[in-house]
Amino acid sequence: MKLSYYGHASFILEISGKQLLLDPFIASNPNVENFDVTNLKPDYILVSHAHGDHIADLETIVKHSKAKLISNYEIISYYAQKGIEGHAMNHGGKYQFEFGTIKYVNAVHTSSFPDGANGGQPGGFVVWNDQNCIYFAGDTALTLDMKLIPMSCPKLDAAVLPIGDNFTMGYEDAAIAAEFIKCDTIVACHYNTFPPISINVDEARKTFEEKGIKLHTPAFGESLEF
Ligand code: NI
Ligand code: MN
Asked: 0.85 exceeded by the pTM?
């Protein structure tokens, strides 16, 4: 399982020979220069919720890749009206795809589209195959529901957690989340993109280290293998 970071909360997960793109906000990211998203050819795009910083590049990428969406019912219905194909899920449900299983899990956040349309309830994704399991929390507060993940999914190899505070949990709460989900390999996201989510990354790393948890903060384009 290979995970590549594309800034903010955008990742590509390579699993069972398929590419899953998470929350595409890449060329639209104010910190990213000269990145052509039309070169991305994901097989699927996973959308945690409808906020602009998670979908801004979605339509361009779909046009050039024919990627299929996986998200909640309201987000899939919204894009279906634009002729974009997808697979709708809802909280607590899992489904076996050609690359493995996805469970759509709870997140505590909001989810309206930039145009005001209803984006349903926000969520996170637990993705696994026979070898590996990874959790993408999406934008969320620390929530006790996270304790259900190790009880109801395979053992996590890694988890992607927001650490930027203000709109989501900050790194102190994310370190508690890592304990809730029983995962000692965490990949940081949703920080240092805009002023309200600017954080001290060394302090964040230290907070996790004190709990014996490794916090990965990959550079743009960097890949991690699990
Ligand atoms: Ni959001
Ligand atoms: Mn966000």
From this structure: yes
